[in-house]
Amino acid sequence: MKKWMLAICTALLILGGAGCQKDEKASNKKPAEHEKAPEKKEKTELKNTYPLTGIKTNKPTDARVFAVMVNNHQKARPQSGLHKADLVYEVLAEGDITRFLAVFQSEKPKVVGPVRSARNYFIELSQGFHSFYIHHGWSPEAKKILSGNSDVDSLNGLYYDGTLFQRASFRQAPHNSYIAYKDIMKGLKKKGYDNKDKIRPLPFLNQAEAKALTGDKADKVLITYNHGENVSYTYDSSTKRYARSSNGKPTTDRETETPIEVDNVFIVEAAHRIIDSYGRREIDLTSAGKAILLQCGKAREVSWENKDGRIIPSGTGFVPGKTWINIIPTQPGISKSVSIE
């Protein structure tokens, strides 16, 4: 492969963000005497890096992070906009059903939803990115935080139902609240919040570190949440990504049918405690603990830590790309809740 072709391929790999992909090797073949040697083209240098994906770009990377509470009830599937999220936290709410905190920065979804109500630990996770926090309703604990803490920039669908938030006719409440990106921006402006921010990057491996990754083969991981609700990730060696499923059904975007595929799957243990008769929980997101990190078709046992409000792997980093973080209870824990093939 000639040098100018190598440069283009390298740039495409960087833009694609697949930290696990291998480099092409340049050809040593010289042009024949009657052939004109191709002109040398300068390699395009991408000057910026998206802070939450580690992907190189020449576009501005200072857009304000926004985080949306997304419903994961069976009646809310398939959801909208998750394929555009840089990072998603998946955590239990009440009962056996998880809820998503979808964190957006490098890409803008046309619409997100169904939007669901706030919980205090989701607010804590959102604040790790100084996010514009978007929710529809709240628990008593979340209401105390959002009503009395001016440090949390938020938008509540209870006050903008039918204006910024729209009810879809194809689903029933509480599984039918949606918000468009343009209305997120309207809400940001309406409330006088900044739309730009200097965002600290997540820890990412460089190209050499990503190539040197070791670990056990991990083509598929199954996570069981209590009574039968499960999540699986299946590795595709051609894309170098993990495709997500719920109870065996692929997770896709409702409008575009785009599959949810991620470069990092981070499974962490945290202590959960039921705090009321409704089944609401407190979750310890500060004490650190056991974790499994899946990247490039390999699984590694690591530890997690909370660094400035963010759940990250201790002593290592993510490969550039999208990340899904599954937080599971310490009881029964990773050893009983997670199966890797």
Automatic annotation (TrEMBL):
It holds the Pfam family DUF3048_C. InterPro entries: DUF3048_C, DUF3048_N, YerB-like_sf. Residues 22-44 are annotated as: Disordered. Residues 52-193, 223-325 form the DUF3048 domain. This is DUF3048 domain-containing protein.
